[in-house]
Design a protein that fits this description.
7-stranded mixed β-sheet; mainly beta
Amino acid sequence: QVQLVESGGGLVQAGTSLRLSCTASGRTFSSYAMGWFRQAPGKEREFVAAISWTGTSPYVADSVKGRFTISRDNAKNTVYLQMNSLKPEDTAVYYCAADPLYGRALRGNFEVWGQGTLVTVSS
């Protein structure tokens, strides 16, 4: 089983960009589907994006489509969330997640979770 550590969060101004990284331990990273979730204060967790182990046909939620991109580098055991044109409503704790089954991942069900990284977007 992999262990996940997110990084790259911080305080940014609206309209700017930020790239989150999630690095996995273990040699089986490339066999896992990966995803990103976020949870804003007082709100339910939101499924943001997912990517298969091959990196093809990634999923991005409609709420961030056109602004967020998910990608992965299996050689670096890392998945990324590129966030452009950030808005104050993107403020949340962002979580990385992993699951061996992409079909299950696309339903928002993940087996392994990171601790989260806080993104704050000021207006």
